[in-house]
Amino acid sequence: MASKGFFTKSFLLYHRILHRNLSIGKLYRRTLSAKLPRYPSQSTSLPSFDDISNKTLVVDMDEWLLKSNSIFPYFMLVALEGGGYLRGLLLLFSYLFLYFFASEELMLKVMVMFSFCGMKVDGFRLDRAVLPKYFLENVGLEGFEVLKKGLKEAKGVVCISRRVPRVMVDGFLRDYMGVKEIMGREIGMKYGFFSGVLMDWNEDKLAQKMEDVGVDVMAFGSCFGKYSQQLPFTEIYTTTEQEKKNWNTLPQDMYPNPLVFHDGRLAFTPTPMATLAMFVYLPLGIVLSVLRSLIFGLLPYRLSIPLSSLTGSRSYLVGQPPQYKTGTNRAGGQLFVCNHRTLLDPIAISAGLNRPVTAVTYSLSRLSEIISPIQTARLTRNKEEDRRRMSTLLARGDLVVCPEGTTCREKFLLRFSPLFAELTDKVVPVALNTRVDMFYGTSTSIFKFMDPFYFLMNPRPEYWVEFLEKVPTEGRSIDVANGIQRKIGEALGFELTVLTRKDKYMMLAGNEGIVKA
Length: 517
What we know:
Elements: H1 2-21, E1 42-43, E2 55-60, H2 61-65, H3 72-83, H4 85-98, H5 104-116, H6 126-129, H7 131-136, H8 141-153, E3 156-161, H9 166-177, E4 181-184, E5 187-190, E6 193-198, H10 203-213, E7 216-220, E8 233-237, H11 241-245, H12 272-298, H13 301-309, E9 314-318, E10 335-338, H14 345-353, E11 358-361, H15 366-371, E12 375-378, H16 383-396, E13 399-401, E14 412-413, E15 426-435, H17 451-456, E16 462-467, E17 471-472, H18 477-492, E18 495-496, H19 501-508
Parallel strand pairs: 1-8, 2-3, 2-7, 3-4, 7-8, 9-16, 10-13, 10-15, 11-12, 11-13, 14-18
Antiparallel strand pairs: 5-6, 15-16, 15-17
């Protein structure tokens, strides 16, 4: 018993140490306003601007814009999304091993090395496709207000990143914060690949930039204290980590540019402890994914739904599925029009109806078609040919169409293609929503056939299916499509957009998202 108590106390002590210290921000946890006696004008409170039209603002992203000083999650995202699970595991182990005795600079260089070494420079899009979501979720409202006012009224704004390399923050700052002047540390490149070597911070470059500005400069961040004698800083504002904990998180409706699209598999912020928990859970997640796939693929819905709930999966049906007698619809079957959340949408509708349906897709891998438990049909993107194929399928039975043409994770609806409105006199709108807690079941990668498996790997994946009232397709097809988009958006509380599949893939993957058969 004594031995058991000793090990219990030791484990709890170790857990408290990890919980308190396991953050790269701990390495920078000094009081930001301390040891800076030479400031021309120093304040730890938020400034109240009067006229800044002739001033330039220099903002330290790490110490002023972001609430948390921990930068480990961003490197883990690069390692996992850009290099795979093995690279992420190596980064996690090296971080845990070196944390207690390595210097802050060494820790930073180790993270860069494990995250970037050997990764292709050409086509690196994580700064635009993956990282912005996690940066935005860490932006402090109070710090953002300063940046927003500077972008609107000041002569210029320069944003610097002294710890996170420039290649990781460039897309976030330009596309979502609206910053045009960005300075940060660089990563070595050779033969078209990242070498993983983090270059030293170029203080001379910052000094030259300030000389080029040639006007009054307001600096935000304690790192500028060492330059107060050499650079034309008229005011320097700092904040402490404790003060930033009391800041509010920037709400989504205040994002300068809305976050409609983002990529990557992880649906959580990969802190060290959360990442460790994911790797421990991963073997069980694979087993659950295979088991749930077999349950839905081999058993009828009246058995598969209750059995899958025993594994943690949840399905919610809102509203009554439409009832009709065979032959009463002049088109043959019933046409269901839904928003697109994952590749499992038609299966969720089929389960809600408790009868088989056919799903049409614009771009689906052959493997996904083979393993699908329902019938699928490929469209050609030729309007006349697609109309003929869909009419033929609808004459044979129920048909599910996702007119958005691609999935969207956030609370937005993409533009609805109007072709479905030309097939029948009435359609049934279906509002779909999902919830995941570990992995996203969508991606723009070449491994899209893995999307359903990732969704089913979640500890508690959830699906909401809501059948809405039938809508007549009278009038112009584009007006009908917009009306159904609006009806589904109101049911879900989603915002409507005119964005398309091409917009999504050009932004996230640099292509049009067409999978060759």
